[in-house]
Amino acid sequence: MTRHTRILMSCIYWAFALYLLLPLALMMLMGFKDARFIGFPITSWTLDWYIGVFADRQVMFTFGYSTLIAILSTAIALVVGTWIAVTLTGRAFFGRAVILGLTLLPAVIPGVISAIAFRIYARVLGIEPGMWAIIWSHAVHNVPFVVLVVMARLSTLPRSQAEAARDLGADPLVVFFRITMPYLTPAMIGAGVFCMLLSFDDFVRSYFLGGYDPTLPVLIFAKLRSGMSPEVNAISTVVLVLTAVLGIWAERSMRRIKKQANR
């Protein structure tokens, strides 16, 4: 690669990074504006909007509600997705491609169509709109991502380890919990964090299947219907910071676990 090519690639990279980060920076700045409307110039600054986020009981309750839904739906998706990935990996049987295709289908269906289908199916099953209906829809939507990540990790697992454990008398359950599960832990952490963020940010399914208590995206949408304000920017900034912290923690945890596994 020539020097001019490296400079060009570097310019393209930083231009793309600026394209992504500049709107986020502007959003965060607007949360400090001492006025009720969005726009420049910012003549005075205040922390009242951020203080108000933590003082608002409705916002804090909704944040906890959305977090609980994200955790429970992710836990279900991890269990189901890992089981499907282990079942499908390394085995050739009739109908494997069909099962894999059906498993990945929720990830490619448009959100609105998926939400409508979940709403109809929930009515058929007698599931009332609310927290458990949202958890069910989020878990089904997140399973394909767990399957893809876990299957990619499983494809690099040396077969000699499981074979050696079986030769020493370990049954399949012991092999899974002593050999396979520790090897899959980094992938499961990554998939879990990704699914939590998907669930926390999901608007369409939460809107169609929600009850009287809205999730955070639905609450933000309701506030936006009355117009943009620095309050919405402050809420979004708090969520963005917490998301970044969670992502950094997940990345460091995966690296540490991989290093321990490679020793």
UniProtKB/TrEMBL annotation:
Membrane topology value: Multi-pass membrane protein
Keyword Nucleotide-binding: no
PROSITE patterns linked: ABC_TM1
Domain of life per record: Bacteria
InterPro entries: Bact_Polyamine_Transport, MetI-like, MetI-like_sf
Residue intervals of the ABC transmembrane type-1 domain: 63-250
Localization in the cell: Cell membrane
GO CC, any one term: plasma membrane
GO-annotated biological processes: transmembrane transport
Chain ranges passing through the membrane: 12-32, 63-86, 98-121, 133-154, 175-200, 232-250
Keywords of the record: Cell membrane, Membrane, Transmembrane, Transmembrane helix, Transport
Xref: PANTHER family: PUTRESCINE TRANSPORT SYSTEM PERMEASE PROTEIN POTI (PTHR43848:SF2)
Family: Belongs to the binding-protein-dependent transport system permease family. CysTW subfamily.
Record's protein name: ABC transporter permease
Organism: Paracoccus siganidrum
Lineage: Bacteria, Pseudomonadati, Pseudomonadota, Alphaproteobacteria, Rhodobacterales
